[in-house]
Design brief:
The structure holds two protein chains of two kinds. In chain A, 26% of the residues lie in helices and 24% in strands. Chain A has 13 helices and 19 strands. Classes of the chains: A alpha/beta, B alpha/beta. At the A-B interface, α8 of A face α3, α5, α9 and α20 of B. Chain A: It comes from Albibacterium bauzanense.
Chain lengths: 488, 493
């Protein structure tokens, strides 16, 4: 019997003085492709990083590459968050930066980044075009990294990893933010590459897995538990319904019957047009779904509504009953709405504690710069209690598991009881149960007179209150429709 | 045009140098009201121009841009910056006559020609704003008597001005009204409103004067901010290589070290920076800094004297008239130094190692900050102004070195700062030649604590700590920093 590709014996790992893995053993043999699932916070990412040599641990991790394989003897780990730096090497970005145009390029273009990567890893740049086509990326070669949407950034990460074709590829949340077509294509590539000798470990709680996945495991009590199939993996506990805090049961003040009205709106960067003649009205109390493939302009459309896009000033847009550009400040606009988006999360203040993150929602700031009145402190406590986040109150936001971080940001979004909620892919990276949990809360919140704009890729995972849908494709409105019960 | 400062009687010189009032948040309760509905026209659309304009418009104000005809016709970057963000852009003739507030954000050197072109076009009683007072104070530009002249100067690069605003915060800002040009008494009210429009009122505002701003700004940038960092980087690198330290390591230790060391300075002043050292190392650094201060004090005084007398700007303007001959020669020379040409090595240096292995840099920065501050205060500049132009800006400049070394620093700073930086550097290196002979790798390149048992004398330690903590720059710094605590770390490493 050949040696296993990965042989882990008695692995111990701590994260911030907490024991995450203890005496963990795992053997991965040639031809095996694993799904690593289980509850958030159980140590999946830490284990994956340890195998890739990115995390300090004690115990033995032995990798025995296949000498007969033509694939590089390499372990590649793809993290759940993408990361890039600007040309000067620092990462001091802000989430609206992609809308603020500046002639001096802040980041490399997609193609320049891939060229650089090819040079560093001694790859042939011609080989990448297959993957660019596969993810519908061929037209984005000259786009700057900062201009990519969160789904497109995920694709960049995946393209690089697949291009390397390592013998062992570990991907943490591979499907985050991908549209349906890209997910299918990704799974096809997984099946293809594994047949050529690539080994896969996927950390995911998704249902649509590639066929090549043939082994299943989860981490329980700091050890690896092997199960027979994905149904055997422990699900998150379902949430016990709670009563909304009193102040969130009050209907918010409605400023206008028409919350958002835009007429023939165009957004252009130089020669590149991102939105074409978009007209849309959101009336008070309506619950909208905004859909479209990655890069179709969804976040750009929302940025026109939340005050983040500089080109809104010269467009025919009315927000909360007022013409945009008639002397209002962006803070006047933000006061009316609560927003959560992958970008906002990505760029959120890394020094903020959980309670500060929530409280910053009173002021629409990224980070808290005010002292809180007693009344506001009480509201923060009530909301934390409602979201079962009380025990994390004083923790740093970015040390919480992803699902909990999302809940904190949702709490931030609603803390001032705004009339309009904008939830841009709020459940990215969450599993089915967490998503259900999140959407149940959205449904509860929306029973009290709120207006909702929700962005989500999958019809199976939406709040039930949604009644209308707008679909974007290549920056154009493809459909505006009322939803019948049938899609749920 | 005559140097404005030199035309003043001593009484008035002291009076204007002494304007420094740290403003309370409540003074900005009126928000942007004073500029609401007024036409604001920004001249120039580089990093400061574009980002300040974006902030002002996002605060509900009416902003457009005016550029020279050629910039518009040739669709230069400034034109693209403005139009890509859907701002109205027009020539001076088109926009200036209707402007209530003209904000001049062109490079210092162009001020005279820009002001000469726009002043005749400005309407009666309008306001003209600067972000640096060189043109008024040193070049002696006289502005039409019906116009109000103010200054609003965010103390951060333009990109930070935008980033902090969108977070809901701001950057520390200096505001001033020129006493010769405030015919309606509206200058301060408008400067405050402008400051609110950029978000500056949230991060600490210092009311200064044109004179105090120029004389302290020139002093800071020539000495501690740029000159001293340039000299220190080169001397440290050369010494390490001379003593056999790997050049890649030496290059990295200096390039990123200045940023890591000054980040502690930014958060907690010289006290915090020195506290990152062990007790033995701290005492040694204190002694080295004292020695450096004694050697360099006359040079700092000479720079301050030449700035006060106008001698510095006179000589520099001669170089302007001579097509920047000196500036360009010196810039080229900096590009040829061994430090500049040795890439940072692919070695990992831990956060603490940047302190332990670069005791000389810590001592040198301490000496520079304290000397610049002391010299300014002795010359009649108030401690608040002196703090902004010494300690406060050091980490910002260090960040540019971390990005791409001295070439980058000199690219980012103004030509005026760059010119002064080279003057300082050329005088400082020979001044320190003898001292540098005594320097070995224990204070630059290797860990000073190695081979020592760490024991110190109680009394010495107490005296050293006391001297560090009670220095006037620490006293004023602790007050001013409280207003800026929410500022984000800018980090390259």
């Amino acid at each position: 019997m050949p040696k296993p590709l990965v042989n882990i014996t008695n692995l111990n790992l701590e994260y911030q003085q907490n024991e995450v893995l203890k005496g963990l053993n795992w053997q991965i043999f040639y031809g095996e492709n694993w799904l690593l699932g289980g509850k958030s916070g159980s140590g999946k990412t830490s284990l994956a990083r340890a195998i890739a040599g990115l995390e300090k641990s004690s115990g033995d991790i032995e990798i025995n590459f296949d000498p007969s394989s033509v694939l590089p003897k390499q372990v590649v780990f793809v993290s759940s968050w993408y990361q890039f730096t600007n040309l000067e090497g620092d990462r001091n970005f802000y989430y609206q930066q992609r809308y603020n145009k500046h002639q001096q390029n802040d980041t490399l273009t997609v193609y320049a980044e891939l060229l650089k990567f090819a040079q560093e890893e001694a790859l042939d740049i011609d080989d990448v075009s297959y993957y660019l086509d596969l993810f519908g990326f061929s037209n984005s070669k000259n786009t700057q990294l900062i201009e990519l949407s969160s789904g497109e950034n995920k694709k960049m990460q995946l393209i690089k990893a697949l291009w390397l074709k390592p013998q062992l590829l570990i991907i943490d949340q591979p499907y985050t933010g991908l549209d349906a077509a890209s997910r299918k294509n990704l799974n096809r590539v997984f099946d293809d590459l594994t047949s050529q000798g690539l080994h896969l470990i996927l950390i995911s709680n998704d249902d649509e897995l590639p066929d090549c996945i043939n082994r299943f495991a989860e981490i329980k009590n700091s050890r690896l538990v092997i199960v027979n199939n994905k149904e055997g993996i422990t699900k998150e506990e379902t949430r016990i319904k709670k009563v909304l805090p009193y102040f969130l049961q009050q209907a918010p003040d409605i400023s206008a019957k028409s919350m958002v009205r835009m007429n023939n709106v165009n957004v252009k960067y130089g020669d590149k047009q991102v939105l074409h003649n978009v007209s849309w009205e959101v009336k008070a109390g309506e619950k909208w779904l905004l859909q479209g493939p990655n890069g179709s302009g969804k976040s750009t459309l929302l940025s026109l509504i939340n005050g983040d896009h500089p080109q809104a000033y010269t467009s025919d847009i009315y927000l909360f009953g007022k013409k945009r550009g008639s002397g209002e400040s962006i803070w006047d606009i933000k006061e009316h709405l609560g927003i959560i988006s992958p970008e906002l999360h990505w760029y959120f203040d890394s020094t903020a504690r959980v309670w500060q993150s929530v409280a910053s929602g009173f002021y629409d700031s990224i980070g808290l710069f005010h002292d809180l009145t007693h009344d506001k402190q009480r509201k923060v406590d009530e909301v934390l209690e409602f979201f079962d986040l009380k025990e994390y109150k004083y923790e740093l936001l970015n040390t919480l598991p992803l699902g909990k971080q999302r809940l904190v940001l949702l709490a931030r979004t609603i803390i001032k009881n705004p009339e309009l909620l904008i939830l841009d892919e709020p459940c990215q990276g969450l599993d089915a149960v967490q998503t259900q949990h999140f959407n149940d809360i959205v449904d509860e919140l929306c029973t009290h007179g709120k207006t909702l704009i929700y962005v989500g890729h999958f019809e199976t995972q939406l709040p039930t209150c949604i009644e209308k849908r707008i679909i974007l494709k290549n920056g154009r409105v493809e459909a505006i429709e009322s939803l019948t019960e049938s899609i749920f | 045009m005559a140097n404005y400062f030199n035309t003043l009687p001593l009484r008035e010189k002291l009076n204007q140098l002494g304007v420094a009032e740290f403003m309370d948040r409540t003074e900005f309760a009126d928000g942007v009201n004073a500029l609401k509905g007024k036409k604001i026209v920004v001249v120039g659309c580089g990093a400061q121009g574009l980002n300040q304009g974006l902030n002002l418009r996002d605060s509900g104000l009416d902003v457009s841009y005016t550029l020279r005809k050629e910039a518009i016709e040739q669709k230069r970057d400034s034109w693209k910056n403005a139009t890509d963000n859907n701002f109205k852009v027009g020539t001076y003739e088109e926009l200036i006559p209707n402007a209530d507030l003209v904000i001049n954000l062109t490079p210092d050197k162009q001020h005279t020609s820009v002001i000469k072109a726009i002043m005749p076009l400005m309407k009666q009683g309008a306001t003209l704003s600067y972000s640096h007072g060189f043109n008024i104070v040193e070049e002696g530009m006289e502005i039409r008597k019906d116009l109000t002249v103010i200054m609003v100067a965010p103390k951060c690069p333009g990109s930070e001005v935008r980033a902090e605003y969108l977070r809901g915060f701001g950057v520390p800002t200096l505001i001033a009204v020129h006493p010769e040009n405030d015919p309606q008494g509206k200058g301060l009210v408008e400067a405050k409103a402008y400051c609110v429009g950029t978000g500056g009122h949230k991060a600490g505002v210092l009311r200064s004067s044109f004179v105090a701003e120029v004389k302290s700004d020139l002093m800071g940038e020539q000495t501690i901010l740029c000159g001293l960092l340039q000299t220190g980087s080169i001397l440290s690198f050369d010494k390490m290589v001379e003593k056999g330290i790997d050049p890649g390591y030496a290059s990295k230790l200096v390039q990123y070290g200045v940023e890591v060391i000054t980040e502690a300075l930014k958060q907690g002043g010289i006290t915090a920076m020195m506290d990152r050292l062990s007790n033995v190392a701290k005492i040694k650094a204190f002694e080295v800094a004292d020695e450096l201060k004694t050697i360099m004090r006359p040079l700092f005084q000479k720079h301050q004297d030449d700035i006060m007398s106008g001698e510095f700007s006179r000589v520099m303007m001669e170089d302007w008239a001579n097509n920047d001959k000196n500036l360009l020669t010196w810039r080229a020379e900096t590009g040829e130094t061994a430090f500049e040409k040795t890439p940072a090595g692919d070695v990992k240096i831990g956060d603490q190692e940047y302190f332990d292995n670069a005791l000389f840099m810590v001592a040198y920065i301490k000496a520079g900050v304290e000397l610049a501050f002391e010299t300014m205060v002795e010359a009649g500049i108030k401690p608040e102004s002196a703090y902004y132009e010494s300690l406060h800006e050091t980490p910002l400049i260090a960040n540019t070195i971390a990005r791409k070394k001295l070439f980058e620093m000199n690219r980012v700073i103004s030509d005026t700062a760059e010119y002064g930086c080279y003057l300082f550097d050329h005088a400082c290196k020979p001044l320190l030649a003898n001292f540098m002979k005594t320097v070995d790798t224990d204070i630059i390149g290797k860990n000073y604590n190695d081979g020592k048992d760490g024991a110190v004398d109680n009394k010495t330690l107490i005296a050293v700590n006391d001297a560090i903590r009670t220095h006037p720059v620490e006293k004023v710094g602790s007050v001013l920093r409280k207003a800026m605590t929410a500022m984000k770390t800018i980090k390259t490493v």
